[in-house]
Amino acid sequence: MVGLAVMAPGIVALKRSGLGLGPWDVLHDGLAGHTNIDLGTVGILVGIPIVALWWPLQERPGIGTIANLILVGTFIHLLLPHTRDAHAPALRVLLMAGGIAAFAVGQGMYIAAGLGAGPRDGLMTGLHRRWGWSIRLARTSIELVALIGGLALGGSFGVGTFAFALGIGPMVQVTLRWFGFPVQQVPELGDQPAAAVGLAGE
Question: What is the three-class DSSP state of 1?
């Protein structure tokens, strides 16, 4: 619960920085602009069908999945009306960096609890456990796919969006280890010695 409570202000901080939302929230923001539904509610609605993508990855929902689906969006919905956009450049950068860091710490806390990942995070852990992708590779790939969809829908983005997309995977891999999640030591594509790859027919 603490992890989920830490994630939501991180998302709000990113939005109020004006330097760009995280990729999934670019997607949510684009959908919100087309539907006139607020950002937090869109986040809840988008999360529901994503759980269906878990089945080929052999991920299963838990109480943490339901809590993530409902509470993070609810916290955002409650926090946004009580915050304002930042204008001072230093404050904007601080909100961006602090928002990404808070999100990564919150992710590490709640996923390591082992009570079920949220809809989007279950894709990451599923790719890690089922197909052997590292956390940072799985998360970065997922974020880039969400970003492409968000840009196509006209969601707001900026330098913070790309900082999040490229930085959140490595950061979450670190915070998961902090809180005891069994992160596998998986070599990235291209990290393997040439001799281990081999050639067809050898």
Answer: coil
Say if CB 162 and CB 96 are below 8 A apart.
no
The overall average pLDDT reported for the chain is 85
Delimit the domains of the chain by residue range: 2-193
Q: What tokens appear for 125 in the block?
A: 């852990």
Give the type of residue at 31: L
Interior angle at CA 63, CA 58 and CA 66, nearest 5: 90
Q: For helices 119-131 and 135-152, give the axis angle rounded to 10 degrees.
A: 140
Q: Kindly report, residue by residue over 46-104, the tens digit of the pLDDT.
A: 888 888 888 888 888 899 988 988 888 788 888 989 999 999 999 999 999 999 999 99
What string of H, E and C letters represents the secondary structure of 127-142?
HHHHHCCCHHHHHHHH
Q: Enter the tokens of residue 197.
A: 């790859």
DSSP 104-132: HHHHHHHHHTTS---HHHHHHHHHHHHH-
Q: Note the pTM of the prediction, 2 decimals.
A: 0.79
